[in-house]
Here is the input.
Amino acid sequence: MSGIEDTLTNFLKLTFLSMVPFVLAGQGTMLGGRTGVYNVAQEGMMLVGASVGFLASYLTENLFLGMLIAMVTGALFGLLLAYFTTTLKLDQFVVGLALFFAGLGISTLLPKKVIGITLSPPLIPTLQDIPIPLLSKIPVIGEIFFNQNILVYVSVLLSIALWYFLFKTNIGLQLRSVGENPKAADSLGVNVVRMRYITTILGGVFIGLAGAYLPMVYTGTFTDGMVKGRGWLAIAITFFGSFSPIPILFGSIFFAGIEVTAYKVQIGGTGIPYQFLLMLPYVMTIIIMIFTYGKARVPAFLGQNYDREKRTL
Amino acid sequence: MRFIKSILPYLGAVVIAFVVAGIFIALMGYDPLEAYATIFGTSFKTPYAFVQTILKWIPLTLLALAFTIPYATGKFNIGGEGQMIAGAIGAAAVGILLSDMPIYILLPLEIVAGILAGALWGLVPAYLLYQFRINEILTTVLFNFIAFNLIDYVATGPWRDPTAGHPTTVAVGEGGFLPNLLSTQPINAGFLITIAVAIGIYIYTNRTVGGFELIATGANPKASHVHGINTRFLSVFSLVLGAALAGLAGAIEVAGTHHRLIEGLQSNFMQLGLIIGLIAGGNSLAVPFIAFFIAVLEVGARAMQRTMQIPVEMVFIVEALLLIFILLSNVVRRRK
Amino acid sequence: MVKQHVLEMKGINKQFASIVALKEVNFELYPGEICGLLGGNGAGKTTLMNILYGLYRQDTGKIFLEGKPVSIQSPKDSLSLGIGMVHQHFLQISNYSVIENIILGANVKHPYSSNLTPEKQQIDALCKRFSLDINPDAIISSLPVGTRQKVEILKALFRGIKILILDEPTTSLTPQEVDSLFKSLEVMVKEGLSIVFITHKLREVLSVCDRISVLRDGRNVISLDRKSAAEEELVKAMVGENLDVSKSIIFSKGKYQTVDPKYEKAPIFKVNDLSYTNADKVQVLKKLSFDLYENEVLGVAGVAGNGQHELVETLMHVQQLSNGKIYFLGEDITRVPTEAIWKKGLVYIPEDRLDDGFLPKSNVAQNLILGFHKSPSYSSKGFINWKSVYSKTREMIKEYNIKTSGPNEVGSNLSGGNIQRVMIARIFSQHTRMLIIHNPTRGLDIPSTDFVYRKILEKKKEGISTLLVTEDLDELILICDRIVIIYKGELVGVLDRNEFEKYRIGRLMSGFKDTSLAKKRGTI
Here is the structure.
């Protein structure tokens, strides 16, 4: 009996551990999306976040400084995205792809330059669990929910805070109006440009942090391509979640669950070649897309740039 | 004269990109002039380097077209990697299973299998787009990751070449080798195939009714639909056609360049192909020329890493900068 | 004693790329008056007011409020200076409520909660004061056009504005609603507001404005009191030398040469019980039936949003109808795809020029052949004959007076009027059998509008009939032989030319069925 209990506890704990990159990247995508900026550079931004986060942690010997620097890097990418799309009015997808490439290149270049090419890459310590006093002692639930690393708690609190801010306050209403009808918002004095910059930069902070999480929790180092498509998956989660913080949180938990399942089955050893198990998260994503696609609601002006002086012909 | 005037912003962007990249290189502690000399010069120094450039040009051109054709209808094909891998697997499968067949049967079958496999890999995202209106950026990317795992299985599975240090299959049958064009250099017939494809695509997009409908669909899908163009079919068709070209690239790598399936053969051709396609602004005539330029850079980058210990990724940064500055030059041109 | 003006705009110049929109324009507004800003589309009226409201910035020129110079960089500035604007196309978020739309950008009392009670009280007080009747919690998408306009007005009143700009406010209103709007304006003026009334409709300024200022081609023409304004003088001011008024269709008061429709022959176009349910499961069209005859211009009247868009799209098979039959020249075309419909000579000019009718990134030549690119005049054996396309384009540019540098010019460089000319050239230069046209003259200047009417009447003479779907009542009354009226997706009336009367049509547009029309050619 306790064997099953242990397996379940372990599985769920691992799931909550794994949901963090999805939640952070998802909320980052959502925030910009609510003002109409459709970020597709997440994969590159997370790679940079992972690379910079790892290097900074290694050089300063401090994980939190590493996180901070990764967040600053993410903010920088967000700033570039905002500038190219909102101010220069270039196509959002194209800019996103360009930033993805930039992130791809920088993330592989930097470690080679800073550490050089070695057979045994240096490792950084893992992010420790922080047990919440009293609550973590509750059997089963205590271990799953209240004995996790700090970013797990941050992810949940962030999601709730964003939900409250966007949907339960009047300021949030105004922010959302920018993505629903920027011309209407602009005509009433809402600063569309400033809103887009703020949400995109802040989104970049979350996405950079999502990337930094990976070396700090999984491998202790940076390897090329370690994000493994989580950035792209975050876009999908944000979509199914209709750009709403709580559905995104639950969607992330679900995806993390699939990821953990594939990993566990692979370890457990079945007849199936492990490569096919590794395909599972991606295939599941596609299947879920088929079922939920018509029902997703996105901000009306998502992906469209706004030009106040544009003459409607 | 007007032509020169119209490409002036592009040239300006290119120059600025190289200057900025040069500063970046200098900041990293290397000599930018020596770096650039190596990057630009290597391809033309030795026949071997030139052949390598041509061999890179083939997949770069095809992957760039794999992006620009759907882009003409407003769709983003980010699945070139997976489609190329699928094409390579298809070609390798035929080449290995039917390895005893003579060349006039095996080779065409191999190439066709590669094209069809690539097309199939693009067909599923295209169908999902058509039927469920699912964003193709996401589906094509997800299929890339599925393909990575698939090729890992194929290259380490029953067809594995045990003597190779890196996951690779055994060679395809001799009948599956693309013949070389010159007896002295390993430039395979894939070169001619690619030229023919590039010309064919150009004629299609610029001179045919179908090509007009393709461009119109991308320019304004609603207006095209209202005026009788079957936009839904065309956007799906363009994705499948692009995927087929990526599959062809994979088939040529297997049949011509390596004669076997090597894990990682997709290299970074897709990313570079995207950059080429975006720099070309979707102009299918410009693609082969820009692809050649990028091929030169890539060959030079590897030489630069060997001789100057500058990581190859530096060139990728240069290429990304090129893209960014060309995008900026579009803004400048618009302002005029 | 000289009256002091509350607003003065002096020497305003504005240029967009190479187009001069305003040249040395002056404008004055006196306290407590309704000043009409009159001119054809493209005259610069909206541009001038957009500058006042802060959506555009003037290149040179000054603005004075109560004698003091002011700088307006954005709508935030204009609103804080007490200037509000009701735009021609309402700027509303459909899935927000009335009050949520109104408070956008305003400083609410409780920003960090969703409590809007103080604001709701303010809105209720405003509604009482200005005799407007609105439910603040209603969702915008559920409201009719007339009510949505009141929300736009409330948005401005909520911010305590003293100057209200209305841009073509009567476009989507029935004649009865127009009267109601004018009454509201008079209430506002009594409450101390000053109003700028932008319009291209002569009759409106003459009925509600105290003073009239005319713009043409971005320049002042005249300003005068309503009492001293004569219709002819205003027409001449609006049109200048750009149109020979005596030979025009627009100012002909319906007295122009034309042929009679062939009612004795079988109709060339028959619609039976056309029904359409959209993706949101709303039945937008309910059993529509009507006929169109040879040499006829049949008008479809109605307030915007009563199914017109869905009607034209189902007829052209851009959308799939749910029920009913369509016959063209005796043939059942209900299931025929759009491409074949075009091929049969049944063609369409959509209302939404940019969205539905034009390729901005393509050049003029490519735009000209859109829809006809498969016809033998432009292509053969699957290849487009660009040489003949380009030469034909050059011909069209001359014949239809399209202002462009040539077939190679990028479409997005053209002005709205010229884009319409391209779309008209596209249709009218080919062999066609019937035209479906939706709001063809919206946003067009007066000479272009007259040109469109002329072309439609020409085609009518040649036997090519037109189904004219438009929200412009004056247009319908001017050139149609019969008018059917659509309300909430149903045909509620058919009128012959001798029965055309504005208020009668207006009643039908508002949904009052006219039972005396039960037995008519063309069923209800």
Chain C has three domains: 7-242, 265-345+432-524, 357-426.
